[in-house]
Specification:
The chain is 45% helix and 13% strand. By secondary structure, it is α/β, with parallel strands linked by helices. Among the domains are: 128 residues, 3-Layer(aba) Sandwich (Rossmann fold), CATH 3.40.50.1980; 129 residues, Rossmann fold (3-Layer(aba) Sandwich). It has a five-stranded parallel beta sheet, sandwiched between helices. Helix 7 packs antiparallel against helix 8, helix 8 packs parallel to helix 13 and helix 14 packs across helix 15. The protein is globular. This is ABC transporter periplasmic binding protein. Keywords: Signal.
């Protein structure tokens, strides 16, 4: 009897031990399963884009805050419908191009960073917490921007006219979303207009191409073969007299050199920026200086001021308009059917989402302010 009781007690203790082990084992299993099922984020936070010069830049996947400090960057961001992402712009954007204050929706309310193009204050910029900063090709400033935790996207160029569409594609790659389709639409338009012009100008023999000179800000500053402005003139049907200069967009020449070239047409753009003389003043100086009176372009009243609108035509996305305008200026007979008023209205409606009136269109084409 006593042995039976002991046996029962032993069995009870054995069963209790099994239950405890099972319970503990179950708890351990639940913990292990929980750890395995805990979600681990492998989603990338950055992506790599390629600048026009082949440089790789790592940018955030989701770009919501940008600084438009490079001259043409505000225009590009606006075209890509990303003005809402701009937290700061260059101070020059605020009052440099009066038409931009009319066309752009939020420019007047956006912070302008002082001396953004010449003496950037990183601490000042950090106050606005941009993820990406579109900037000039200044290695020191670009390095400082990157070291501060922001991502710099410096201007780069291959010297090709197609950079005009490719740089917009770069901005779209960085921004993502609807910007990509907008850039594709612009690229299609760009290619169509280049073809429209070159279908005519490519058939013009060399001897029938008028000699053309491009003046950048000052009479004796011009573009070299590393600038796409040389290609622009050639595509428009001109014979670019400075195509052999080994330089970029701004090279100083002598009066004697200009007289020797004796261009049939002179185009003036990019004047009036950074404290330089206006395009009107540049031409006035040329007309009042007796040394230039013997130049064919001056004698025949073929000194042209490029339209501006929201930005200089020789630097931004309106450069495709400049190609058409220049072709018509050089060969009015061959481009008699090209209506620049119609082209300008279409461009502003399609890419700036703004309907120009007849009066506004006329003012822009005549290089007049609003």
């Amino acid at each position: 009897m006593k042995g039976t009781k002991m046996m029962k007690r032993f069995l009870s203790m054995f069963l209790a031990a099994i239950m405890i082990v099972s319970t503990l084992s179950g708890c351990g299993s639940e913990k292990i399963v929980s750890d395995k099922e805990k979600p681990v984020s492998n989603e990338a936070k950055t992506k790599t884009v390629t600048n026009l010069d082949g440089t790789k830049i790592e940018v955030p996947i989701n770009v919501e805050r940008v600084a438009a400090l490079f001259g043409p960057s505000y225009e590009k961001l606006y075209i890509l419908n990303a003005e809402d992402k701009i937290v700061a712009a260059g101070d020059f954007h605020k009052d440099g191009w009066p038409w931009s204050n009319v066309i752009y929706k939020k420019l007047n309310d956006i912070v302008g960073i002082e001396n953004a193009h010449s003496d950037l204050n990183i601490e000042d910029l950090l106050k606005y917490d941009p993820q990406v900063v579109f900037y000039f090709p200044n290695p020191d400033a670009v390095g400082a921007i990157n070291q501060s935790g922001m991502t710099a996207v410096p201007m780069a160029s291959t010297g090709k006219f197609e950079d005009t569409k490719n740089v917009l594609n770069l901005y779209a790659d960085i921004l993502g979303g609807e910007s990509v389709k907008i850039a594709q639409k612009y690229a299609k338009y760009f290619d169509e207009k280049v073809k429209m012009v070159t279908d005519i100008t490519s058939k013009i023999p060399e001897e029938e191409r008028p000699k053309a000179y491009f003046s950048n800000q000052e009479i004796l500053w011009t573009a070299g073969k590393k600038s796409d402005l040389v290609e622009l003139i050639e595509l428009a049907g001109g014979n670019c007299v400075h195509k052999d200069i080994d330089g970029g967009s701004k090279n100083e020449i002598s009066v004697e050199q200009l007289l020797d070239w004796n261009p049939d047409h002179i185009f003036v753009d990019h004047a009036g920026s950074s404290g330089n003389a206006s395009a009107e003043d540049v031409i006035k100086e040329m007309l009042n200086d007796g040394r230039y009176q013997q130049i064919n372009a001056v004698k025949n009243n073929n000194v042209h001021i490029s339209p501006t609108g929201v930005f200089f035509w020789d630097s931004g996305q309106q450069k495709i308009l400049m190609l058409m305008w220049m072709a018509k200026s050089l060969h009015p007979d061959k481009f008699a059917d090209l209506d620049m008023s119609k082209e300008l209205k279409y461009f502003y409606k399609e890419f700036y989402r703004y309907d120009l009136s007849d009066e506004e269109t006329d003012k822009i084409l005549k290089h007049l302010n609003p």
